[in-house]
Amino acid sequence: MSITDTTIADQVVVLQQQTAVRLPAEVRAVFGAEMAKLIAAGIPSDVAAPGTDLPDGDLLDAHGLPTTLAMARDGKPAVVVFYRGEWCPYCNLTLRAYQDKLIAELGDRGVTLIAVSPQKADGALSMQEKHELTFTVVSDPGNQIGGKLGILMTQNDDLRTAQAKLGANVAATNADGTDTLPMPTVVIVDAAGTIRWIDVHPNYTTRTEPGEILAALDRLGL
Q1: What is the 3-state secondary structure (H, E, C) of 125-173?
Q2: Is the pTM here over 0.70, yes or no?
Q3: Domain spans, the chain
Q4: Other Cβ atoms within 10 Å of 133 Cβ, number
Q5: Under CATH, domain 3-220 is a member of which superfamily?
Q6: Are 183 and 208 in contact (CB under 8 A)?
């Protein structure tokens, strides 16, 4: 079975099996505790609801030039994907799956795909080039849009220490120098800029499957 035949969930299982044997026990324990806390807390109560306007902000494109979501949408309906960063393996396999399974279908529907993260513009460019992504990838310095959507999470000291042991420094990759991150989220917005559907994942190892996005577009008539 090829990668394009598998679900994101299938790929996550393989990824976790491959990484589990390499992670120190104390790091696994910290990640496990953090995941349990996020799952228990669930979706934040103040997440933006369908029917409200999609917020915008002062963004940067993959080359560091100023842009906005409105500019990236260019008057079209859009699937807007919020991801953590180029350093996140779950984000990497998810965006690659969207490239493989969504781009052609979205193009036929006249729907654009936009990926948003708080990382620096060079991280967005790296993500785009590494996975040969043909859709728009932008940087949201300071999580302007994620904050207005109500999908942000903060990291504690234990998690920062565990990530450092793996050579990861989220604050160094984020454009604003903090380690605040968006929960993985997919938003469908219509041509008028209104949120029609939103899917938030407090558990960052789970993601919205391409089939779920297409099914939602069908229900919305987009």
Answers
A1: HHHHHHCCCCCEEEECHHHHHHHHHCCEECCCHHHHHHHHHCCCCHHHH
A2: yes
A3: 3-220
A4: 19
A5: Glutaredoxin (3.40.30.10)
A6: no
Task: Please provide the average confidence, as pLDDT, over all residues in the chain.
Answer: 91
Question: Whole-angstrom Cα distance, residue 87 to residue 123?
Answer: 9
**Residue 78 DSSP symbol:** E
CA separation for the pair 7, 179 (Å, rounded): 29
Which H helix or E strand runs over 15?
Answer: helix 8-20
- Tens digits of residue pLDDT in 37-90: 888 999 999 999 999 999 999 999 988 999 999 999 999 999 999 999 988 999
Whose CA is closest to 116, among 173, 177, 180, 61?
Answer: 61
> b/e string for 50-81 if b means 16 or more Cβ within 10 A?
eeeebbbbebbbbeeeebebeebbeeebbbbb
Tokens 């006249």 sit at which residue? 110
* Length of the chain counted residue by residue: 222
Q: State the maximum Cα–Cα separation within the chain, in Å, rounded to a whole number.
A: 49
Query: What does the alpha-carbon distance between residue 130 and residue 168 come to, in Å, rounded to a whole number?
Result: 18
